[in-house]
Amino acid sequence: MLTNPETKYRPFNAFPFPERTWPNKTITQAPIWCAVDMRDGNQSLINPMDHDRKIKFFNLLIECGFKQIEVGFPSASDTEFNFVRHLIENNLIPDDVTIQVLTAARPELIERTFEALKGAKKVVIHVYNAIAEIFRRIVFNKSQDEIIEMSCNAAQLVSDFCEKNPDTHWTFEYSPENFSLAEMDFAIRICEAVTNVWKPSEQRPMIINLPSSVESSTPNIFADQIEYFCTHFTQRDKVCISVHPHNDRGTAIAAAELSLLAGADRIEGCLLGNGERTGNVDLIILALNLYSQGINPNVDFHDIKHVAAVVKECNELPVHPRHPYVGDLVFSAFSGSHQDAIKKGFQTRQKQEHSYWEMPYLPIDPADLGCSYEAVIRVNSQSGKSGSAWVLQQNHGIELPPHLQREFSNVIQEKTDQSGHELTPAEIWSTFREEYGLTGQNKLTLQEFNVEQNSPNNTKLKLALNIDGKKTTMIGEGNGVLSAGTAILKEKTQVDFRIEEYTEHTLGKSSDSRSISYIKCSNKKGESCWGVAIDNDILGSSLKALLNAVSKFIK
Ligand SMILES: CC(=O)SCCNC(=O)CCNC(=O)[C@H](O)C(C)(C)COP(=O)(O)OP(=O)(O)OC[C@H]1O[C@@H](n2cnc3c(N)ncnc32)[C@H](O)[C@@H]1OP(=O)(O)O
Ligand SMILES: CC(C)C(=O)C(=O)O
Ligand SMILES: [Mg+2]
C-alpha cells in the first residue's frame, strides 16, 4: 500500500490569474532555441561527456542548426574549462553561433568562468540562483532580500568582467532557479533587481530564463505563471523571456508549448529530453510538433536516426522504442485496423491533388525524417488482411485481389497465433510462395504449352505437364486458354472444378515486366483453392496459376 498521500504531500499552490489570455492563442512561429545538452544534459549523465564526446555533440548541434548552445559549466571541472578553451582557441564556433555558459552566483566561480571565455566572440553569460521559499530556507538560509542581494552582487560582478572584455559580444542571462515553485511577485522582484543591474535595452536585450527546475504543477499553471510574469514585469520589451522546463511530471512538452502561448520567446532544452532526473524538455519533440503543424522549426532533423545515434553515443543512454518521432517503433503499426487505414491512406495519397499530408495514424511523414516506409506496417497476431497485403505490395509489387487478401491473412494469422511472434517480410513472402505454389514444388507443373487460336471462340491448347514427376502431353479446347486448360486438367486429374476468380497484373513498370496471375478454383464439394504464378508473359502466368490452384485439390 502507498503511504497516505494526504498527510505526506501538499497540492500545488496555484495562484488565481483569471486575466490569462493564453488559452485563446495558437503557436504561429518557432521560438529561439537554446540547446543545453552539454551543460544540463551533461551534468545528469552517469559519465559526463569527455572532450571527444563534447566535440561530437557540439558538431551535431551545429549540424541541426542550433544557434545558441550552452557548452558547459566552465568552473565545474578542468574538462569543462578546457573544452570551452578548445572551442575558442581553435576557432571552432561558427560566426552565427553563440555559445552560452552557466555559473552559479558565486564570485570565485564567476571569475573562473570569465577566464574560460577569454577571446570568445559571442557569449551568453548565464547566472543562476534558486529563489523559491524552500531553497531560501533549506539551502541558503537567507531571506528574500538577502537572496536578491546575492543575485545582484553576482550580476554586478558579471557586468564588471564583461566591461573588462569589450571585444566579446556579451548577452546576459539570469535564471531564477525554481521559478515555478516561487512566489510570483518575488520572482518578478528579483528579476527586476537583476535587470536594473544589467540595464538592458530594446537594442541589447538580456535573457530572463524561467525554469521549472523541478516540474511540480500541471502545465496550465506553468503557462499562467509565464503570462503573469510577462504581463507584470516592467521592462518586458528589454528582455527575452526564456523557459527551461523539466519533465518530472511527464508534461514538459505541454508546459513548453503552453508557455509559448503565454508569451515566452525562447526555450532551453535537450535532444531526446536528456537532463536531470526525468530530463529537460525534448527539443526534437518540440521542433517536430511545430513542423507537423506546418510551422518551420528553424532546426533540421531530416536524418533523425543519425541524430539519435550521436546523442545515444554521447550520452551513453538508450532511446525508448516509443520515444516520439525517434523511437524504432514510432512509425510502425501492428494492429489490423491501423494497417488498413494506413494502406488506404497511401492509396489515396497517390491520387490526391494537394500536397498536404493526410495519413491516418501517421501524424508526420517518416520520409521527412529520413525514415523509410518499410516498417510502417509490421505483422503479428494483432494484424489484419491489410498487413500482409501491404508487406507483399511494398516488397514485391504484389497487388493481392481482395478475396485473396482475406484468405492469405487467415494463413498468416494462424502462423502468428501459433508462434506468438512477429512475422518478418521474408517469412511472409516465403509463406505466400509456399501457400500458392510459387516454389515450383507442386503436383502439377508446366513444361511447355502451345496455343492455337482457331476462331474468336475456339482456342486449342497443347500442354506439356509434369504430374508428380511424370511428363504428359495433352491437348484440349475451349473458348480461351484458361477454359482449354480447365478441360485438360479436369480430364487428367479427375477433379471436377471450375474457375471462380481470375486477376492478373504486371510486376514493375518496364516493358520487360513480368506478369502475375491469381486464380481461385472451387470443386463440387464447395472447397476452393488459390493459385498464384509469375511468368514472363501473361499466358504462362495464368496457366501456371491454374496448375498451382488445381494441385492443391490433388493434395
Ligand atoms: C538546476 C541546475 O541545474 S543548477 C546547475 C547545477 N550544475 C552543477 O552543479 C554542475 C556543476 N557543479 C559543480 O561542479 C560544483 O557544484 C561546483 C564546482 C560548481 C561547486 O562545487 P562546491 O564548491 O563543492 O559547491 P557545491 O556545489 O556543493 O555548492 C554548495 C554551495 O553553493 C551554494 N550555492 C548553490 N547554488 C548556488 C547558486 N546558484 N548561487 C550561489 N550559491 C549557490 C550553496 O548554498 C552552498 O553554499 P554553502 O557551502 O555556503 O552552504
Ligand atoms: C540553471 C537552471 C536554468 C537550471 O538548469 C534549472 O533551473 O533547471
Ligand atoms: Mg535545468
UniProtKB/TrEMBL annotation:
It catalyses: 3-methyl-2-oxobutanoate + acetyl-CoA + H2O = (2S)-2-isopropylmalate + CoA + H(+). Its cofactor is Mg(2+). Residues 439-555 are annotated as: Regulatory domain. PROSITE patterns: AIPM_HOMOCIT_SYNTH_2, PYR_CT. The keyword Transferase applies. The keyword Hydrolase does not apply. Its EC number is 2.3.3.13. Residues 31-305 form the Pyruvate carboxyltransferase domain. Mg(2+) binds at D40, H244, H246, N280. GO terms for cellular component: cytoplasm. SMART domains: LeuA_dimer (SM00917). It is found in: Cytoplasm. Belongs to the alpha-IPM synthase/homocitrate synthase family. LeuA type 2 subfamily. This is 2-isopropylmalate synthase. It comes from Commensalibacter intestini.
